[in-house]
Design brief:
With 588 residues, the protein is of the alpha+beta class. The chain contains 20 helices and 21 strands. Bound molecules: adenosine monophosphate.
Length: 588
């Protein structure tokens, strides 16, 4: 197929912004495209060679493109650079300088879509020291044989400047009209696209087999599925109204969504936006197969940073330390994670998308063997508002953002934000307005880098009425190596053989101290807790108050005695203020 047909379509499209006209140009092009190359045409129209998740980039530096153009047109580099500065669009420059050339020479042969695509593909694959010269040769040979209009688009594609913005959905419309006879069939194409995230593959199927290809469109390994999304709700009642008498309440962890594709030994991980993120998680690639009992799988999980000493979940930001090109091994060691699976989409060649949630969950539980690294997302079946609230409270206490509520009978709806999944978050202001001064009452031995020192401290507020030190949180973040050493020394003088009778906590520390040392802490929120005893029964029967995401500020309050620490009454006031802020924000 002549490349000029694609180039002409792109030219028409450049001159209109009307969606109907854009679609019609595409329909006309698709109808004359041989089936075997429809996927190549679809990719080229969007300035790509393959779907984004495959990470194949044409990626040519402007310098090389300019050199190639100079060679093809027989015009000095400086002149081209000058034109480029003037016009600001490399495609237009290429078209202009080649226009001048065609007036003096003959074009040898028509260039085809296949030739353009295959040449660009070869360029994308070139690596290594000599690759720049080779790239230049390939480009200049293409440009040599191209008409000015064609050269303009080739130049734009290779420098990633094809900015026509042909949306995926416009292409789906055009494919529906061209190959199924009606735009009404768009939803079926959209479904196929959501299942494989590859427009070329959808185009190829529908061009060859029409509607039939869509009816049987299958999930396939290493083609990421567009993730199912949740609607936000504000209260457990809303969930009951939307979900019926019984539904699943899963923890909503605050990490990174990971879609894991595994076939034998090969594993690829995709992010929520379907970027290949395998490189950031070498620990998953290395360790996960021990826990997965199947040959071929697509699973969804939330990867969450954890404090290895305390087992607590850490906020999402901690994971960002892994987003780097170098020293990944160190980041993996310093920022350990757990992988918490919550869905299964493919098992040994069979799609699970149409299975109801409860069935998928059963499959998940049957194929995952949990250990300290691989987990199944905690879930409880719930019926009443009270039950939802209980799970929410537990979730918040272990560091979750809230809950995901899921309908038991619903299929996995790829790419859809639907009311089969609801998210119930605990809303709060990012930070408590104030820092707190808390008493160190116990400690837990460190592991890894913190071996031989304390990994986390147990802290208490002061209860003036009972003259006790009820615990309020465990803190493991905010410490430097020096401060850890310093604590080890200061606290070794305070160790007691038995727990001081004024200490009140549901936790068993490794070491207990005289309640004397006061340190400054910031936190994101105060939550209800069954384990911590500060303000026990004051807000709710059976619950105390705890700090969420506490962090040591670096200040030891040497000037304060433990009776000067933040009191339980002050904590209650902070908690009530925070609730008021949440309510105010909801009303606004
Ligand atoms: P949001 O980003 O607030 O719209 O919440 C949706 C995100 O929550 C998903 O993309 C997942 O990364 C994350 N998530 C955490 N726990 C779960 C869970 N149990 N089920 C589904 N998604 C979860």
């Amino acid at each position: 197929m002549k490349f000029s047909l694609v180039a002409d379509t792109l030219s028409y499209m450049e001159n209109t912004t009307k969606r109907l006209e854009l679609t019609q140009h595409l329909v006309d092009l698709f109808k004359i495209t041989p089936h075997e190359i429809i996927s190549k045409v679809v990719y080229l129209l969007q300035g790509k060679l393959r779907p984004d998740h495959e990470g194949i980039e044409i990626g040519i530096a402007e310098k090389i493109a300019i050199r190639a153009l100079s060679k093809s047109a027989g015009i000095p580099i400086v002149k081209i650079e000058h034109e480029y500065k003037k016009m600001g669009d490399f495609g237009q420059v290429a078209a202009k300088v080649l226009e001048q050339k065609t007036q003096t020479t003959f074009i040898t042969e028509d260039i085809t879509v296949e030739r353009v695509y295959d040449t660009l593909y070869r360029i994308a694959e070139l690596k290594g020291a000599r690759s720049q010269d080779m790239k230049m040769k390939y480009i200049s040979s293409l440009l040599n044989d191209a008409t000015p209009v064609e050269a303009g688009f080739i130049a734009k594609i290779i420098t990633s400047n094809l900015r026509l913005g042909i949306a995926d959905y416009t292409i789906l419309d055009a494919l529906a009209i061209a190959f199924t006879g009606s735009k009404e069939n768009r939803p079926m194409l959209e479904h196929a696209y959501n299942v494989c995230s590859d427009l070329g593959r959808v185009a190829n199927g529908v061009a060859k087999d029409g509607i039939l290809s869509l009816k049987n469109f299958q999930v396939s390994i290493f083609s990421p599925i567009r993730p199912m999304l949740a609607e936000r709700i504000k209260s457990p009642q809303e969930a009951r109204e939307k979900m019926g008498p019984q539904f699943a309440a899963e923890y909503k962890l605050d990490g990174e969504r990971v879609q894991l594709h595994m076939q034998g030994e090969r594993i690829i991980l995709y992010s929520r936006s379907l970027e290949n993120i395998t490189n950031y998680y070498p620990d998953i690639v290395e360790r996960i197969d021990k826990s997965l009992h199947a040959h071929e799988l697509i699973l969804e999980a939330e990867a969450v940073a954890v404090n290895e000493n305390t087992g607590e979940f850490l906020p999402f930001q901690e994971l960002m330390h892994r987003r780097r090109k170098y020293k990944i091994a160190k980041a993996v060691q310093d920022y350990p994670i757990t992988v918490n699976f919550f869905d299964v989409m493919l098992l040994d060649g069979k799609s699970c998308l149409n299975m109801p949630y409860k069935e998928r969950r059963r499959v998940l539980e049957s194929i995952i063997k949990e250990d300290s690294f691989a987990k199944i997302m905690p879930m409880k079946l719930v019926k009443t508002d009270g039950e939802v609230e209980d799970v929410l409270e537990n979730a918040i206490n272990v560091g979750c953002e809230g809950l995901m509520l899921k309908q038991l009978e619903s299929p996995y709806r790829a790419g859809a934000r639907a009311s089969n999944w609801l998210k119930l978050k605990r809303e709060y202001r990012n930070e408590l307005g104030d820092s707190l001064d808390l008493v160190v009452i116990g400690a837990f031995y460190g592991r890894g880098r913190r071996t031989g020192r304390y990994g986390a401290l147990l802290l208490a507020a002061y209860d003036e009425q009972t003259d006790t030190f009820p615990s309020i949180c465990k803190v493991g973040t905010g410490f430097t190596d020096e401060s850890l050493d310093q604590f080890y020394q200061i606290l070794s003088d305070k160790i007691t053989i038995k727990k001081d009778p004024r200490i009140d906590t549901g936790l068993e520390a490794d070491v207990w101290f005289e309640p004397e040392v006061v340190i400054e802490i910031v936190a994101s929120e105060i939550t209800l807790s069954p384990i911590h005893k500060a303000a026990m029964d004051k807000i709710r029967k059976g619950s105390g108050l705890a700090l969420r995401f506490p962090k040591f500020t670096g200040r030891i309050r040497f000037e304060k005695t433990s009776e000067n620490a933040t009191t339980v009454d002050e904590v209650v006031t902070l908690y009530n203020n925070q609730k008021k802020i949440v309510q105010d924000e909801r009303q606004n």
